[in-house]
Amino acid sequence: MNKSQFFRYGFCLFLLGFSLLNSPSLHAQSFFGYQTIGTHTFFFSIAWQDKKPFLGGGYTYRDFGKTFTDLSAEIRFPLAEMYKFDNYQIIAGMYKPVTIKRAFMGTGAHLRVKTQTSGEQKTTRVQLALTVLPTYTYAASLTDGLYGTTALRITYAPVIWASVKEGANTPSTQALADHVLELGGHLDVHSERTLGLGLNGYLTRSFVPQKSILPQNNQWQGVGDFYWGMTYRIRRS
After folding, report:
1. Alpha carbon of 133 to those of 39, 86, 184, 186: distances in Å?
2. How many CB atoms are located within 10 Å of the residue 162 CB?
3. How many helical (H) and strand (E) elements, i.e. helices and strands, does the chain have?
4. 107 burial level (CB within 10 Å; 0-12, 13-18, 19+)
5. What pLDDT does 24 receive?
6. Least buried of 40, 173, 203, 218, by fewest C-beta within 10 Å?
């Protein structure tokens, strides 16, 4: 086993071990949110996108109000290249349900910044992801039992800025207004106000203008991600 493999496998074992810790003051929330009483949450993610696995981690702050607002930030690295730190994705934004009911509408707005380096070429794109999630609460224990939601997920994620640079001495080429549509579903569950799990699966397709500098990809592709984590402060009132 070489050093890069040791680092990757060790990091995976660390994330797995951390996720299995069981403490009354811990909780999880996924990027697309679900009902919890956690105020501060650290979470981890495993994702499949661009035909490769990604590992990520992040933080969510919940602002309680008439409903609530989740403010989150996450960073992901491709598993095979995470030690290089030149390919990554940053996701930051908010999730908020319109009302708190058995069936409700969730909404989200996030910025995604994605950087890819291949040889001398560096591609950066910024997306504005606007999401609606028609959601149903399938389990709603008022004590420490199971609580979970399931939802349909519709996201419009236009590329609002992109740049492709060929080598350090070559000026970058920039473009705007590529379009991305994502259709799928969400499922989450948490038990005893402790460990929370979230699963997202969806199909994504780019509607790219002919003059775009980004790769042409007009076919539907499957994407999935799995979240788990815990919070260190619980709001009980």
Report:
1. 22, 32, 10, 8
2. 21
3. 1, 12
4. middle
5. 27
6. 218
